[in-house]
């Protein structure tokens, strides 16, 4: 990605210390970053920290470097503005259109995407005044992230925690890659996403698994939540990924557990995104105790396998039988390789017909492709016969393109 000019606004809250990591990650990605804090933010983190990390001067008022007219020029020149943390007070001042410091003046002059990462106590986040301010900012085209839930100041817990720096910078990079705002077009849509690989126990130590990291499924959940959807994520083995902010997460281990979780949540969902890599087979009789290797020559143990339920095909059948009355879109994922019978797309088209889902995302797998990497590509196949390429990009960018297609599909169902 070419070097972009990013403004990181920092409001006065205890989470201001996390802004230092946001600045570092964006500068390490090759972007030009300037930090514009409020006066109260500097009570939590000093200007020297932000200057050292960004390589640019830090000011809070409109009377520094007046000859450069910073209260106008900074916003005009920006490719992206990120405010992290965005406190209740900052959101209120931005909504009203105040320009009483350098940050709010910058927000008024910026014509680029603006990303707010809220951080405040739960009562403040849920207060009708804040809810109205957030709705107004979103209506104007700003992106207001859903906050995380967790430990707040003191002993309090709940929604209002600043999302992790990695989530903020990932969404910032997506906005730069899209070169436009992220639409808030899925409000009221309930989405069920599965991600990661399942593990089928052989004994208490060993299991049958796969190489899925869960990164693509997590990206799908993250993007859909930030576009307004009410997202539930069923996560298998996800290699310690950060649970997406604003998403309800259920962790499972085996294919049977994933199937049961999907069965529980699917009746309320409008969209099912089956990005998990579900094991096709499991050991018929998992050993209670560890299988011992034993001396050489004693023979090798045999593991009998049985077929797991096809969760995706089961959801399609359940919808056809009227058991999922709210389900409008079912999206499958397929990791494929070519063989003597045909190439990746040949097998993908056959799988789409066999599964019966509305959309199928297809990835060609191989060395450094699809699994355990941060980038992806592939194809998006539709039940109506249309096909489109998903050009190479970060898994978040790929997720955004897939969500664009899902949103378009939902509009045809309305």
Automatic annotation (TrEMBL):
Alphabetical list of InterPro entries matching this protein: CoaB-like_sf, CoaBC, DNA/pantothenate-metab_flavo_C, Flavin_trans-like, Flavoprotein
Associated pathway: Cofactor biosynthesis; coenzyme A biosynthesis; CoA from (R)-pantothenate: step 3/5; Cofactor biosynthesis; coenzyme A biosynthesis; CoA from (R)-pantothenate: step 2/5
EC identifiers of the protein: 4.1.1.36, 6.3.2.5
Species of provenance: Mycolicibacterium vanbaalenii (strain DSM 7251 / JCM 13017 / BCRC 16820 / KCTC 9966 / NRRL B-24157 / PYR-1) (Mycobacterium vanbaalenii)
Binding site for CTP: 280, 290, 333, 351, 355
Gene (name only): coaBC
Protein's name in the database: Coenzyme A biosynthesis bifunctional protein CoaBC
Function: Catalyzes two steps in the biosynthesis of coenzyme A. In the first step cysteine is conjugated to 4'-phosphopantothenate to form 4-phosphopantothenoylcysteine, in the latter compound is decarboxylated to form 4'-phosphopantotheine.
Domain named DNA/pantothenate metabolism flavoprotein C-terminal: residues: 186-408
Pfam families, per database record: DFP, Flavoprotein
Region (Phosphopantothenoylcysteine decarboxylase): 1-190
Keywords, ordered alphabetically: Decarboxylase, Flavoprotein, FMN, Ligase, Lyase, Magnesium, Metal-binding, Multifunctional enzyme
Cofactor requirements of the protein: FMN; Mg(2+)
Protein family according to the UniProt entry: In the N-terminal section; belongs to the HFCD (homo-oligomeric flavin containing Cys decarboxylase) superfamily.
PANTHER family according to UniProt: HOMO-OLIGOMERIC FLAVIN CONTAINING CYS DECARBOXYLASE FAMILY, PHOSPHOPANTOTHENOYLCYSTEINE DECARBOXYLASE
């Amino acid at each position: 990605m070419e070097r972009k000019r990013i403004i990181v606004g920092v409001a006065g809250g205890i989470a201001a210390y996390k802004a230092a990591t946001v600045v570092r990650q964006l500068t390490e990605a090759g972007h030009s970053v300037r930090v514009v804090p409020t006066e109260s933010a500097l009570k939590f983190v000093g200007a020297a920290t932000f200057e050292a990390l960004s390589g640019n001067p830090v000011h809070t008022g409109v009377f520094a470097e007046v000859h450069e007219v910073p209260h106008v020029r900074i916003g005009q020149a920006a490719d992206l503005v990120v405010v992290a943390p965005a406190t209740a007070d900052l959101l209120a001042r931005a909504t009203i259109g105040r320009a009483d410091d350098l940050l709010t003046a910058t927000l008024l002059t910026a014509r680029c995407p603006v990303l707010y990462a809220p951080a405040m106590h739960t009562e403040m986040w849920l207060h009708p005044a804040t809810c109205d301010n957030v709705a107004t900012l979103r209506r104007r085209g700003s992106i207001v992230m859903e906050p995380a839930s967790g430990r707040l100041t003191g002993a309090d817990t709940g929604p209002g925690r600043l999302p992790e720096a990695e989530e903020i910078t990932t969404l910032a990079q997506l906005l730069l890659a899209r070169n436009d705002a992220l639409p808030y077009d899925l409000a009221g849509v309930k989405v069920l996403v599965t991600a990661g690989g399942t593990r089928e126990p052989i004994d208490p130590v060993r299991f049958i698994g796969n190489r899925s990291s869960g990164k693509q499924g997590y990206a799908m959940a993250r993007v859909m939540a930030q576009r307004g959807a009410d997202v539930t994520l069923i996560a298998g083995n996800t290699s310690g990924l950060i649970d997406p902010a604003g998403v309800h997460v259920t962790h499972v281990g085996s294919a049977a557990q994933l199937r049961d979780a999907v069965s529980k949540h699917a009746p309320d969902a409008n969209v099912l995104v089956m990005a998990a890599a579900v094991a096709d087979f499991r050991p018929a009789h998992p050993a209670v105790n560890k299988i011992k290797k034993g001396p050489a020559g004693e023979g090798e143990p045999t593991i009998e396998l049985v077929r797991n339920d096809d969760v995706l095909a089961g959801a399609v059948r359940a919808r056809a039988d009227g058991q999922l009355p709210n389900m409008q879109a079912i999206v499958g994922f397929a990791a494929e390789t070519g063989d003597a019978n045909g190439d990746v797309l040949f097998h993908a088209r056959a799988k789409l017909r066999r599964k019966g889902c509305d959309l199928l995302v297809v990835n060609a797998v191989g060395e450094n492709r699809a699994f355990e990497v941060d980038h992806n590509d592939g194809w998006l196949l539709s039940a109506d016969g249309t096909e489109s390429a998903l050009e190479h990009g970060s898994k978040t960018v790929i997720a955004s393109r897939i969500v664009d297609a899902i949103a378009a599909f939902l509009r045809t169902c309305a």
